[in-house]
Amino acid sequence: VGENLIVSSRNCYTQNPKQEWLRLWRFKPGAVWAAHEPPRLVQPSSTNQSNQSNNHEQDIASINPFLHRETEAQGLVFQHFAYVTPQQLQFKESYYGYQNALAEWQALQQQSEFPVFLRQHLSWVKDETLVEPADICGIVPIAQKEPDGEKWQFLQLEEFQQQTMKIEIPFPQIVVDGVFFQFFPNSGISQVWKSLLEEWATNGFADHVIVLDRAGTAPRIPGIRYRPIRAYDYNKTGADADLLQEICDEKGADLFISSYYTAPLSTPSVFMAYDMIPEVIGANLNEAGWKEKHYGILHASRYITISENTARDLIKFFPHISRSKVTVAHCGIKKVFSPASDDDINEFKTKFNVTKPYLLLVGERTGVNGYKNAIFLFRALSKLVDKEEFGVICVGGRPELEPELAALAEGITTMVLPLSDEELKVAYSGAIALVVPSLYEGFGLPVTEAMVCGCPVITCRHSSLPEAAGEAALYVDQSNVYELIDALYKVQNPEVRNPLIADGFEHAKKFSWSKMADTVVEVLVETAKTIKNDGTGLGSTLWGEFRKLQAQIQEQLPPSPSPIQVQPTQLPSGDLEQQLMYAEAQLQQKQRALQEAGSTLAAMESSKFWKLRVGWFRLKPLLVPVVSLILGINLLLLSTAMYADRTLVKLTSFVSPVQGNLFFSLGGSLLSIALMLGMVGYLGYMKPQVLRRVRIVMGSGGLGLIGLTVLQNINLL
Question: Which residue ranges form the domains of the chain, and what is each CATH number?
Fold first, then answer.
């Protein structure tokens, strides 16, 4: 569609498998042109040649055509120079009546940002056809303009090969599904991916990346390549996986990674795990969103988590995952965050009418099943004698305070503000403290943001929060309101506050987006190389079959709301909430008791008595077969000797009336062999059930013969 512009998408305008210009015609006498657009060469149908009155015609192009996949498998590329000269567009105007075709095409040639939809420039195109520069797609046009810029010539084979060799497509090519931008463009996960893409655009890794832009929702970052794609629909996840695979094939992707739990069919993937909150808190894992998360986990070849805690939880709930397959990449801190000046803080307070010392809550305040636990802070504030002296600023979450929080906030100045990053920086800098009462966090971005702005942090010691906060925070028990009340007063004491701020600055230095970006790149490149060298990709057609069946089922079902739409979370009543808090505290006590028991057990295992005990139990399974073997051998030798050895017969004649008796000797031999077979069972040469029957038969037979012989000799006596 231009001297160096090509259509890069598949199965669309100009690349429709049903259109004849992708075929090879062979003209035979009797064939006629039935149409010009699209061109159709037809011949009389073979079934109707004898019946001249029935004028059926057969499209020659539909007879055993060359299909896309067949030609691609052979490395064959068909180049159609549809719109590369002004004359072609003038013909469009004069013959087809497409007004302004030439002007639209010329505007396309001036385009500098790609990819673009062809329909944005050529008004007669109605579908999702994409245009990109040929070199980005690894294509060398076989017809090129001569240096004078007027005439065209076809490249000779040697010229074509030389130009092809100059095109280097960086390995690996990675498709990134920016699906999360479609749902929550300003959330923590979106911030993670926006920061990663910005880092890659700076360090050059962007050459390896193609971002799938869901319905135009992805942020535009200079240097990043985008591929438009329709919005994600949880009612059509099966069809979406097939579309993702089609795009991966189109782009020659070596690897796939999603911002939120999508996956293709056969292209290998890396799974980014932010948290295991639904699994930990017992959410309904049959919801479509969590099912897709688990499909993504099962599809993946490697895993990246944003905290050590998330890595542990991932392996806990999916024990088939080896720890060596999981890499931790801690989140960074935006460069915008730093201590604000006193003037900026005063200006912020004036702008938003902040008249009291305030505590800060950042992000969702309830979350799934209430795990964000903001009610813990409001419950503590409601018990303060001087609660009117405090204010609370909530940033993020719902635009209005949740009713259950508002009921506890009576007398407390509470504001819900939609702040920019610059304003949030000032809010951090001017706050008494950031309070993070969450029952679970994947990482805890606000913790490190607050620290780098000089804001003390009050939080709880569980999940990933100790990783984010280190020892630079005041920790409280999330079930003990009075601990939080004590911390709210303590953090205002300069002797406590100033060391916290200093420790926070130092701790925050450990986190940066460049570090995270480098770690993610390392995992992606290493995974792609391993798959390429070892051939450990997804060779099975299982995912394709599963998604096809899923798509068929979803077509029959009525549509349901998206499982990750923002919906109010219904929290339980106050008494029940208090019971849940106590239950959480009791659970922590049990966990501490288990840890103490583990320490005691470890001490016992290191003692001499325990080692002797372990040694005995290791020896015990071998002891019985060995003793049986020794007894059996001795008994066999003795019984044989008593029958065959004349000297032994004489020596035992005064104590045994059965010496020299054949049946007595045979009985002893059978019994001894039954004893010796115990070692055979220990070594695993016979099945236990078979061996047991053989030993019972032989032992019983041996004892029977011995008993019979003894009884006969007693009678003789």
Answer: 5-17+67-166 (no CATH), 174-332+516-556 (3.40.50.2000), 342-511 (3.40.50.2000), 612-716 (no CATH)
